[in-house]
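Continued from yesterday's entry.
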Amino acid sequence: MLPQLTAEQVHAALPWPVLAAALEAAFMAPPVAPVRTAHALSPSDTLLFMPAWNDRAIGLKLVTVIPSAPRHGGHTVDASYLLLDRFTGAPRALMDGEALTVRRTAAASALAARALAVPQPQSLLVVGTGRLAPWMLRAYRALLPSLTRLQLWGRDAATTARLAQSLLDEGVPVSPAPSLPDAVASSQIVCCVTTATAPVVHGDWVRAGTHLDLVGGFTPGMREVDDAAVARARIVVDSLDSALREAGDLVQPLERGVITRASLVGDLGMVLRGEVIARRSDRDITLFKSVGHALEDLAAATVVFDQSIPAAP
């Protein structure tokens, strides 16, 4: 019978340092990971396919985006991950794709910040209070222990306060930020996890040396920062092919000539391999734009499988 791993099992099998090491190895020697494909099930509903494979395993993440799902007892976004054996094609495990996604996304951002932010950063601001926000704070806290001042900002003050308190209760020392411009100006890392279609963070708030981590936008129509922020930054992405097709924070300023293709320093793998230098000084503004990469899912899923499924005798 095909093992089915729950969200709790996925999280338990992915301690932050172990996951970060697996992701770093995957970015350094990436598997084959075609750009994801999207299929319209209806004018409002979408099905996404995200495959990847290496010399050991084949992985496929299936994601549904169905806004009406909650009315039928489901979730707007749902995901499952199927891991198969590379040599036989046989399925090895089915995993909770939501847990896999939030955990690898947060770990990839923290991994990028270790490579792109100023050394030993002390201050982090997370913008947004959705499902990814607490995972970003947990990952950053675990993987960048120099961070001592954590702030959270959301449009709704009550929601922000509740999320901050729940994180405090589990030992993550975060406080609500009363002013977004002030919080941006005082933070060395600014992480955006919103679904905004108009810029939330403005370039004239960003001080020299800041690292911008843009996670929320995943379509050409979504924006988290304005053109001024993008124009000031040295830009690194998780996947060049995907980012140039899907990331509104890059696609829109590229189309208007605010930046050029040369403004993109490279992808995270190139930075980790030492092929390009993103941060040249403590005054550079760096920007990491992630749209989600199937190589991250495969790396995380392989760790989950190794930790959760007993090896054959």
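--- second protein ---
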Amino acid sequence: MDPAPREFSELPRDPELGVPVPFAAGTDVGYGDRPAGTPVSARSLDKRRVTQCALSRVCGICGAGLGRPLAFVGTRTEVGRNAFHLPPAHVACADALLAAYRGVAEPVLGLDAAPAEWVLSTTASFEFVRPGRDDLDKRPTFQPSAVLTEVR
């Protein structure tokens, strides 16, 4: 199965939650954190895929190259900290992901808790920040470097 890019409608689905699994979650076996024989999951993000999205400037949802504006999907806490865990995405991909995940009341996409509210914000650029040795949270973050415009 070719991992990317994929149309949103072609993304694999999490068999437990029934939602599409984005590229950054590691949708193929043999690359990243998902061992052979395990189903795709929307619960966590694949560290290698997240890094690939940052360094290659590809959408964290469909895996295709990014232009501008960049969309970030996250929680109010992530917006407040200006640090998102899900890689940037195309606005259309982010809209589709939000629509699919709105009813999910469990931690997904690498979050520690189920989001009370999803937020979609757009910007033109970002910094990819890898955690330091002494950081408690070992997940990398995407920190928008331009003013964010909250869409939803």
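Residues 91-101 form the longest helix (11 residues). Strands lie at 70-75, 118-123, 126-129, 141-144, 149-150. Will compare against the first tomorrow.
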